[in-house]
Write a structure and sequence with these properties.
alpha+beta; six-stranded antiparallel β-sheet; 33% strand
């Protein structure tokens, strides 16, 4: 099942620029592409975040936290698919459509292939307990396409990207750089976007609570509590 964004091109959606302060690429491999991993700080306003969280909490109400997933990537979590135009409030649907429209424009800039008729997989909401773990992984490419993106709610976190493959790198990027990494600071109401090499060739994970991030020149200790995220993926094009 996939959906098409119905927001018209004339719709008035404020342009949001990515924040360089929320991405720490000091230890990235030299072949890392900056545009492939970006964070839009304060992408949602507080009211939008509250509306979306309210609906997610309602959908999660009868679900129990799972100790682990079949692929062992995530522990102590709840997950639910957000139904399209059914049990979710119209205001929340507007937030989802706004985000997809923004992602189409972000993809156009990052990959030069934006498409107003992009197909989107249904969004998933993930509720991760304070002690929950999201380990390093690359999202499946069986059904999803060029983008993995997420809205962060409730709690700040640090996402770390680490190179898994180096086929895309030049000869200057030897195996010695496989230990490099890129960190993304994800405060509540922010939107992260992984595309291109960050989508396919880098794993992503959440660092433990208390990890540090250099934000605007200062070391910031990020203590993660319960974290809710809404994950967006475009549908893989049929070949």
């Amino acid at each position: 099942v996939s959906v098409t964004v119905s927001v018209s091109r004339g719709a008035e959606i404020a342009a949001v620029a990515p924040s360089r302060n929320h991405v720490d690429s000091r230890f990235a491999p030299p072949c890392f592409v900056e545009e492939a991993a970006v964070v839009f700080a304060d992408f949602l306003d507080a009211e939008e975040g509250d509306l979306l969280l309210r609906d997610i909490n309602r959908l999660m109400r009868r679900r129990r936290y799972e100790k682990g997933h079949w692929d062992t990537v995530i522990t102590d979590y709840k997950e639910v698919e957000i139904p399209e135009e059914t049990t979710v409030d119209n205001a929340s649907q507007s937030v989802l459509q706004k985000t997809r429209f923004h992602l189409e424009r972000a993809l156009a800039l990052a990959l030069d292939k934006g498409d107003s008729n992009m197909k989107w997989l249904p969004c998933h909401a993930i509720d991760l307990k304070k002690e929950g773990v999201l380990s390093a992984h690359v999202d499946s490419i069986k059904f999803s396409g060029d983008i993995v993106a997420g809205i962060s709610l409730e709690s700040s976190a640090i996402m770390r990207l680490k190179p898994e493959k180096i086929e895309h790198c030049s000869s200057s990027c030897s195996s010695t750089f496989l230990g490099g990494h890129v960190d993304l600071y994800l405060p509540p109401l922010s939107l992260y976007v992984l595309s291109g090499v960050a989508r396919y060739n880098y794993t992503h994970e959440l660092l433990p609570s208390g990890s540090h991030f250099i934000f605007e020149g200062e070391e910031l200790s990020v203590h993660r509590d319960r974290r809710v995220s809404v994950v967006f993926r475009d549908a893989k094009l049929q070949e």
